[in-house]
Amino acid sequence: MMKATKARVASRLAASAAALAILGAAGTVPAVASPGTSAGGPPDIVAAPTLTAKTHDGDVGYREVGRGSPILLIMGFGGSMDNWPPSFVDALAARHSVVVFDNAGIGGTAPVPSPLSVSAMARQASALLDALHLGRTAVLGWSMGGMIAQALAVTHPDQVSRLILTSTQAGTGASLPIPPAAAAALASSNPATVLSVLFPSDQAAAAQAYLTGILQYQGYYGASEAVKDQQTAAIQQWMTGQDPAGRRLSRIQAPTLVADGTLDQLNPVQNDQLLARGIPCAHLLLYPDAGHAVLFQDAEQFIPAVERFLS
User: Fold this and answer.
1) What is the pLDDT of residues 35-84, one digit of tens each?
2) What pLDDT does residue 189 have?
3) What is the pTM of this model?
4) Which of 45, 133, 143, 191 could disulfide-link to 89, CB 3.0 to 4.6 Å?
């Protein structure tokens, strides 16, 4: 039964996966999108222009949509701004000014001095917040982005009002390792393989919706293989407790929401529990039959939970 289900998932994703491979070339810089919506119109991240912030840590490519209190979204391994589903961003932008950006060395964002680390990426995120004059900001990080968010909250606590950590690990050295097979699937150049590790095998519709969403961006792009290799080393350093910010988990003072799916292939539930226990004032949400991309798969439940947390 499981093999048959996986076969159906692969079949349903094949056409869109091929389109993604054709439409997007990793490491290419996207064309600037058309201007955003007119005053009073609904949020539309696809129509938002790609801008460049001149920061004290180099150029950072970003987009901004919506009105209200600010929230910074930090992307995970190998991804760009184009990996945020438009429906997810626009839903948050109904009540917030949402900023998405590219991590170091991706798109129009400058690389940071080698070796790349989670803390270095957090420093660049901090520089973006400074350049945009956002003040204290809610921060949502997914996967590696959650590591960056933790480091940002540790090293620049005055910039983080509330912290949302999804499908991510503590940097104390006590987290269970990422299963090698799942890590290899995530790093694959085959989009269908990547999706298979982000969504459970019985969630083909959610995986298809995610892929259809991100293909709305013009000139879809992601990290180059060289940047992926650097990010892999940075994640390994974080997971083994070698990044100083990761060892200071208990110093996070911002109210924190930790969320994940119970079927996350990349992050065992024990890691979520460890993370929530290690942060003062943290609350843990676990979604059944959900995977690493729980925030997109169960967006109808997750976004209201975020809104309650931020209110």
Assistant:
1) 344 456 799 999 999 999 999 999 999 999 999 999 999 999 999 999 99
2) 86
3) 0.90
4) 45
The CATH number given to whatever domain includes residue 301 is 3.40.50.1820
Residue 8 pLDDT: 44
Q: What is the pLDDT of residues 182-199, one digit of tens each?
A: 999 999 989 899 999 999
Residue 5 lies in a domain: no
Where does the chain show beta strands of DSSP type E?
Answer: 51-55, 58-65, 69-74, 96-101, 137-142, 160-166, 256-261, 282-287
Range of the domain at 289: 31-310
Residue 100: strand pairing partners: 63, 73
Closest CA to 95 of 72, 75, 73, 71: 71
What distance in Å separates the CA atoms of residue 181 and residue 163, rounded to the nearest whole number? Answer: 30
Residue closest to 140 by CA, chosen among 48, 42, 254: 254
- Of 92, 91, 102, 85, the closest CA to residue 214 belongs to 85
The rounded distance, in Å, linking the Cα atoms of 120 and 125 is: 9
**219 domain residue, yes or no:** yes
Identify which of 123, 124, 146, 134 has the alpha carbon closest to the alpha carbon of residue 99: 134
Cα–Cα distances in angstroms (integers) from residue 62 to residues 89, 137, 184, 201, 266, in the given order: 13, 16, 28, 33, 27
pLDDT of residue 17: 43
Peptide bond preceding 280: is omega within 30 degrees of 0, i.e. cis?
no
Q: Which residues of the chain have pLDDT under 50?
A: 1-38
- Would you tell me the crossing angle of helices 118-132 and 225-239 to the nearest 10 degrees? 110
For residue 163, give the nearest of 294, 292, 284 by alpha carbon: 284
The answer to whether residues 228 and 189 touch, using CB atoms and an 8 Å cutoff, is no
C-beta of residue 170 within 8 angstroms of C-beta of residue 241: no
